[in-house]
Amino acid sequence: MPRDQRSITAADILPLDQYQLIRADKKQEAIERKKLTRISVGPHATVLFENWDSMWLQIQEMLRIEKGGAEQLVDELAAYDPMVPKGSELTATVLFEIGDADKRDAFLRTIGGVENHVAIQLGSHLIRARPEGDLERTRESDNKASAVHFFHFDFTPEAIAAWQSGEGTAMVLVDHPNYGHAAVIGAETRAFLARECF
Fold first, then answer.
1. How far apart are the C-alpha atoms of 165 and 60, rounded to whole Å?
2. Neighbour-count burial of 185, counting CB atoms closer than 10 A to its CB (0-12 exposed, 13-18 middle, 19+ buried)
3. If we measure between CA atoms, which residue out of 56, 37, 40, 59 comes closest to residue 48?
4. What are phi and psi of 66, to 5 degrees?
5. How many CB atoms lie within 10 A of CB 95?
6. What tens-digit pLDDT sequence spans the chain (198 residues)?
7. What is the 3-state secondary structure (H, E, C) of 26-54?
């Protein structure tokens, strides 16, 4: 698996029977990884920073569930390989979660455009989120935000150096007028993401 090439290819994907043999171990690794990569921002937002392993596991799981074979693999690689950090970025899935479906729907209608209000603050560096792909994340018809967003945070060399050195406080910010919250990114998480993403 060429993790150091920061890309997932068809050659990295195991046949389902081989994947099944290591699935329990990989799922346990994912649980441990999420202790470092999952951050709550306010009462309803969860930021999950991604890496090569998380995207590889996502592809393997989608193939296991849907059993679409080589044809499906093409689509899964197109969807998830772009979310593997490419060396000068962090990537994240952001979920807005409310258990009650009606309350969730009402809440999402209040945060239209939230994809333009997410950033990482690192000392004096402000790294705005860049939504993945062309997919519209706020419906034009009623300004309802999606419950799931995929983001890239493009770091300058100076910001990467600051991140790696531990300089400054690192925070995830959501500054939407109807949802303003921040959460500190801890030192262990910074160190893990520095190893995995830069």
1. 34
2. buried
3. 37
4. -95, -20
5. 15
6. 457 789 999 999 999 999 999 999 999 999 999 999 999 999 999 999 999 999 999 999 999 999 998 899 999 999 999 999 999 999 999 999 999 999 999 999 999 999 999 999 999 999 999 999 766 678 877 889 999 999 999 999 999 999 999 989 999 999 999 999 999 999 999 999 999 999
7. HHHHHHHHHHHHEEEECCCEEEEECCHHH
Element (H, E) at 102: helix 101-108
Distance between alpha carbon 114 and the CA centroid of its chain, in Å?
A: 15
Which string of b and e fits 62-75 if b means at least 16 CB within 10 Å? bbeeeeeeeeeeee
Tokens representing 169? 């406080």
Residue type at 154 in one-letter notation = D
Tokens of 44: 């309803």
Helices (H) and strands (E) counted in the chain, each on its own, are 6, 8
If residue 196 lies in a helix (H) or strand (E), which one and from where to where? helix 187-197
Q: Is the dihedral of CA 114, 148, 184, 56 positive or negative?
A: negative
Residues 6 or more apart whose Cβ sits within 8 Å of residue 175: 117, 119
Q: Which residues contact residue 149 at a Cβ distance below 8 angstroms, ignoring those fewer than 6 apart?
A: 93, 94, 95, 114, 115, 118, 131, 137
Q: Which two tokens stand for residue 189?
A: 């998480």
